[in-house]
Protein 1
Amino acid sequence: MSRPPAEPSEEGAHAVDLTGESVHWDLQDSMSYTDYLRLPELLACQRPLTERHDELLFVVIHQASELWMKLCLHEIGAAIRQIRADDLGPAFKMMARVARVQVNLIQSWEILSTLTPSDYSSFRSALGRSSGFQSFQYRMLEFRLGNKHADMARVFESKPDIFAQVQAALTEPSIYDESLALLARRGFAIPVEKLTRDFAQPYTSDPRVTEAWREVYRDAATHWELYELAEKLVDLEYRFHLWRFSHMKTVERIIGAKPGTGGTSGVAYLQKALALRFYPELWDVRTEI
């Protein structure tokens, strides 16, 4: 039941005028915004372990990032299925959405960088051995995008359900593997060993694959869908590396050269990860065009 708007008071004279609006005030028997998003449960998940003011920022940034990664996995998984079905239009939309989410993930480091070394050190010991290195969604996303490394899955062995999900992402074809299979179906000379390899192993560059992508780039008008697919892949990897770089610089800013809580060397480890390439032939072909 709608209630008549109150007479504007002097202090509320500049409030939004609700006259004529059929606002649903009584939601006792209807689904509300709070109900749909399960806000009480969601907002109860932020449970800092100390009384330090800045710990809530640390928790929120990482939980929000996990939600965004959940969406990325949803979109990349669907894009892989669309590429496998030779239906690239929807795949392009999904990949473009992931690229937009990646911008948000990169920006999150800007917010976290407001945490000073003193702020972080005041609650860091409460983290114990917990670390972003143990983010199973991050690892699954990395595997789905094509950066395979079986040893990285070992840290999840103590949690069988999560380990099974990570192993599936490791052993199944990545979005790049499916893209190469698509090139082969479209008549390009992709080596059979690239199509039937052990997908849990790291991908290695092959000049014959570079030549196939070179053909696509030489005649983009004829191979427009494949050309667009190549650029969408490059965009995903480009933004992923920006995310990694921002992560590394934020960590360096906050803890310097200290080891990570998960046992890595910290900044030195993150710097090594910057050298990895997911789609080497798509980068090599740029030199040769």
Protein 2
Amino acid sequence: MASVLILMGSTSDWPTMQAAAHMLKEFGVSWEARVVSAHRTPDLLATTMQEAEANDTRVIIAGAGGAAHLPGMLAAFTCLPVFGVPVSSKQLKGLDSLLSIVQMPKGVAVGTLAIGEAGAANAGLLAAQVIGTTEPAVQEKVKAFRAQQRDTVIAASKLELD
């Protein structure tokens, strides 16, 4: 199993969640993506967390829309860090997902990111930062990414009139 496990409730979440995978790839962090539904495959959810712990997975990134119980249920089955990404829904534009993920009871922690692609990308970045605490090569790539962001903003900060 990979260092980071990206889980989602259905394949329809992949267009959002692949932003996490792209970020992890950029930092050279191994990842694996799977569909595990909190509601339709609860037994698979439990065994997936057992496998993740047994195979040295370091971080779980979980994307879910609507009721969005997946990140919380995963956190209930593991002591690994779980980062929840609210996936935008048609009805409430992801606000329902955000509220479902962020409202965890005391004692079951889920780090909640922004709704949609930005949240998924930041979940990948955050996972790389966690991995970077013990893998200097990953930490250096994160530092280089931050420097590139800084340089891009500085280069764009010099505006002129037409």
Protein 3
Amino acid sequence: MTQINDVPNVSDAEIEKFEQIANQWWDLSGDFKPLHQVNPLRVQFICQHVAEQQHELFDKNIIDVGCGGGILTESLTKLGANVTGIDMGTEPLNVAKLHALESGLTIEYEKITAEEKAQQCSETFDMVTCMEMLEHVPNPASVINACATLVKPGGLVFFSTLNKTVKSYLLAILAAEKILKIVPDGTHDHDKFIKPSQLIGWAEESGLKCIDASGIHYNPFTENHKLAPNLDVNYILCCQKM
């Protein structure tokens, strides 16, 4: 397994970007509207694979890496899991804590990197989620390795990110940011998008085996969203720790 890097794997520019719009995290018609719309698909994909392992989410210990304002974190908590959310953004975490309080949910939120948490809690969690986060850090392989360290042997790790294709540039940046203004201009950098083969390679180097992949298809013009086999824009992977 790859050595966990002691250098903080954080982009100050990326943190600042999400700090500025943190107050919109739970606005269903705001800048995070696409996340709210695709979140049920992520939960569906997770629950499907948990069921295939003949498990359930109830009372499982889960860590949501790069939790932001807590959209997925809360969904998993409502399904009965004990969820910890970690992020390096102060304002998104404040929003997440307040929304959990208002929703009557018990969630542990912590400002810490995945790498630091992995050093503290090796093989502690039944499941790890890391959604739409890898394209916002300087060293995504380091985060993947930390996620592999955090999960127990046999446990599942879920990653979602954006494929590095022409179509992902046209839909996620040109259409969503430049034309339709669904998300703020500059939210994504196409150079930081990750091909599935690259992500799976990093996962395998960290002792994870990819057992399934699906595209998360979101059409910014029609706002339709679905899970489908094509991984050419947004995609989600299910990996298992060997």
Protein 4
Amino acid sequence: MAGDNEAKMEKTVNSLKEEYNTIRTGRASASIFDKVRVDYYGTPTPLSQVGTISIPEARLVVVSPFDKSLISAIEKAIQTADLGLNPSNDGKVIRIAIPPLTADRRKELVKQAKNTAENYRTTIRNIRRDGNDALKKQQKGGELTEDQLKTETDKLQKLTDKYIEEINKVYEAKEKEIME
């Protein structure tokens, strides 16, 4: 029972980490392009499947398309992905300079990260609630004694505390990364 809830909570934390990877900081990172989809012959395709993403410098990303005819489609996809980036191409590769973040933009990103973390904390609490409901049903059905119910509920609460703490750590690390 507890293992099932723990697996759900673990997935929740991993999902938060993936979502945070797509939040742009002042440093170049290939993961900020994870949600970019390129129109590849009518099919929205992840950028990483139509070209190589490299980071030659701290504030520069270079995309080398596998198929040179896709260069304008890739450029358009990056512009419309709402990342606040302006790609430029030389006919062979696309260069994307990562501008330093303004103080206001940093505050905005921290606020966004904070809201996201709160949504994930709520998800953890919902898993706890569902787990508690299931335990109460088991107790009503005679599968658990009153003492077993208390023990299992306490375990679930400890699990919840552990994963909420983990979400807090992930958020604090992202906040620090955005503000540096």
